[in-house]
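Lay summary. Proteins are chains of building blocks that fold into shapes, and those shapes determine what they do. In this project we predict the shape from the chain. Here is one chain we studied, written as its sequence of building blocks.
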Amino acid sequence: MKNIDDGAIFLIAVAVLLLLFAILNVIIHTYNEFVTELQYLNSEIERTDGEERAYWLSRRRRLWLSLLPFIKY
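And here is the predicted shape, written in a compact code that computers can read:
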């Protein structure tokens, strides 16, 4: 009976590690997309002025708000 318990614990540990790896992968991918978009928006803000600058500032504000789970970018 002890061998079965050790095997179950090993399988649970492997499943948890795979789940953590998948979550980490999603977080890294999301962070990379966020930083790329933020760099683009900041370059557009530096390049423009007036009404167009206000548009890019609002886009950057919406990007930051998109970190909240209930707001879409």
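What the prediction tells us: The radius of gyration is 21 Å.
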